Amino acid sequence: MYKKGEVSYVPLPLPHRVQLPDGDALKAALSFRDYVRKRHSVRDYSDRPVPKEIITACIEAAATAPSGANHQPWHFVAIANPEMKAKIRAAAEEEERDFYAGGAGDEWLAALEPIGTGVSKPHLTTAPWLIVVFAQRYGVTTDGERYKNYYVPESVGIATGMLITAIHKSGLVCLEHTPNPMKFLPELCDRPKHEKAVMIIPVGWPADDASVPAAAKRKKPLAEVLSVFE
Q1: E strand residue ranges, 112-210
Q2: Beta strands in 80-221 (DSSP E)
Q3: Do residues 25 and 195 touch, judged by C-beta distance below 8 A?
Q4: I want to staple 168 with a disulfide (CB 3.0 to 4.6 A). Which of 39, 75, 94, 229 is the partner?
Q5: Domain ranges (residues) in the chain
Q6: The domain 41-92+120-207: what is its CATH number?
Q7: How far apart are CA 207 and CA 213, in angstroms?
């Protein structure tokens, strides 16, 4: 994180070395790939409680993400309070009503049809936790001085991806929910004006009858997502 006056470069020997021989590295990569393939975006949650310590550990993992100039331009708000979750759901559904009433446009709504989404968002109150991800447009020093953050969308995107992966690693499920706009969230979450909400992530255990859209299992083949030059 940025602190006024700390502008010199000090090299630190690599603190941790986790490298493996090629064969073991391949096994680890394949094992991780196969485990990540079991991750699903879930909308059907059990009301079974999730200990706060699990949520905290996942956010701690996300906060280790790389960021532009190491400014770490993110903040995570973890919410279990039922009243707050109810307010978020009500506000999100109000935005969704406009979206599905035509604000999204025909092409976007047609693209969402196989996913089965709609105005109703019960996951926002059923899931035991909501994690709201905020991006900091700029930073503020402890003495109130404003400073520039760099590569904010990229940095927050990396951290959010790590958060989703950590949630999956813990055995929980989540959903990437992005009502637009989300101007109601900073005030509700008591965040400063220089932070912008970018995502709401419901987190919990899947319901016994949880389902996912069949279309979500259709992934592009490797040839469409990878180019190799040797």
Answers
A1: 129-136, 138-140, 146-148, 173-174, 195-204
A2: 129-136, 138-140, 146-148, 173-174, 195-204
A3: no
A4: 39
A5: 41-92+120-207
A6: 3.40.109.10
A7: 15
